[in-house]
Amino acid sequence: MRIVRLVLVRGQAARVDIHFMKSARANLLLPIIVLVVGCVELAKAVEKKVRVVATVSMVADLVKQVGGDRVEVVGLMGAGVDPHLYKATASDVTKLQQSDVIFYNGLVLEGKMQDIFTKLARTKKFVYPVAEAISENRLLEPPQFEGHYDPHVWFDVELWTFCSQTVVKGLSEYSPKDKVYFEQRGKEAATKLRALHEWSLKKANELPKDRRILVTSHDAYNYFGRAYGFQVVALQGVSTVTEAGLADMTKLVDFIKKNKVKAIFVESSVSPATIQRISKDAGVKIGGELFSDAMGTVGQIENGYDLGTYEGMIKHNLTTIVEALK
After folding, report:
1. Which residues of 65-88 are buried (b: 16+ CB within 10 A; e: fewer)?
2. How much is the pTM?
3. Which of 41, 89, 130, 223 keeps 20 to 30 A from 27, CA to CA?
4. How many other CB atoms are found less than 10 A from the CB of residue 141?
């Protein structure tokens, strides 16, 4: 018997006891054994990614932009999902509990999940509403949503830039050793968002101001209207929880006719039935589908843009609106 002592410390071969027979076969097996053990140790030494759970797809996209290859992001709400009505499943709760960091929009967008976030935050979980970085004087408080701010802040791209700061903060607090990396990624994301904001301003200016009237299913575009000079008129309020009545529909039809609106729009996360009826009653075309409370599916291309990305969604929406109202 021959004894060879090798041990792997942090991926480096040192000593480990291996007994083998003095034979050609045994001598051939030794380096294979050492290699296998070394690979296992090296795999363990690889840094584990930060496990992040995000609610709506816009937040998930922002976390991916800031976190890069050091995060693993799971989004709870996919394409076509209405966050105002969304209730967490047992599977969702498990994902939230097993995550390292949680990001959600806040401002009561995910209203039916707020209690879950509050409880997890009390257990010292890393839980962050991304909209907390926005100053209150920049937030809108529509009369019909008294007591709460409008949560659809991502439609003002400049405001969404501030939200990237919350993501940098949250990831850095969980993983301080990666703080410099996250800060650099955050700066790069903010630069891209500022460029997107400038593109949006330029695109909106293709329309004369008197034609910038946006009629949609629900009041998700108030920040959009303020940022890019549109008058926004919606059938429902900020939340989709309450349904529009007959009087609201009649009022909207009269408004469309009076202002000679050229097109109105359906939304991906809201039933199109009422807008289709208004389109018929007002004699106005439907200009296309806009993405409001959820992005599209990654790889879903329209107008040359990937609807599964925040940038693609913003560019698709503006292009659709401008071209239909021209």
Report:
1. bbbbebbebebbbebebbbbebeb
2. 0.83
3. 41
4. 13
